[in-house]
Amino acid sequence: MNEQAAQPGGLGELPAAVGPSDQQQQELNDAWNTYGEIEERLALSGISQPMIPREAMPTVTVEVLRGLNGNEYMETYSALDSWHNFVGETISQLENIILQINNELDDLEVHIRKNLIDSSKGTGDRKPSAEDLKYAVKIHPRRRWLNLELQKNRQQLNRLEAKQKSLGRAEKMMSRNIERVKAAMESAGGYGGIQSRAPGQLPPRFG
What we know:
Blueprint lengths: L21 H11 L2 H10 L17 H5 L3 H51 L9 H10 L1 H47 L20
Helix pairs in contact: 1-4, 4-5, 4-6
């Protein structure tokens, strides 16, 4: 997962009079760019960044379920579980990045407004109106760049949340079918590759 704040988008595009200086903008970015630090802390605790599963993401349909034997059920379920976990952790990363983008945006807006108000003092210029301040914030290049990064991360988050739901539904379907196959094998005197489990030890249900 790339860190959005590592890039200095919007710096040096407007005179200092319309907002924080390049140095101030960089300081704001440095202050809110905590994503890498948190990932390092987690790594020290043994929680590494999510790795893409080696197995291809299964597509679970009625036809697929009908054609699986016991071992294939368990292999497919395991692949689904790996992808579900990967997507869930990636969603968490995106939420952390979105959090720091929003915080930097809020702080940047405060500094833009303050800079405009301070620059009008002692010059004889009229105090900026609420509309002046709103417009200055809206057109600031750093804010525009951060909003674009926010949009990209939210778009990715929306897609992953939808995929997380579909994976959860697929796991639930697989879990129920594993129970049915297991019951059928038990009644026939065999398990077809699905090991007998005590109650409560079947693959967990999601959704």
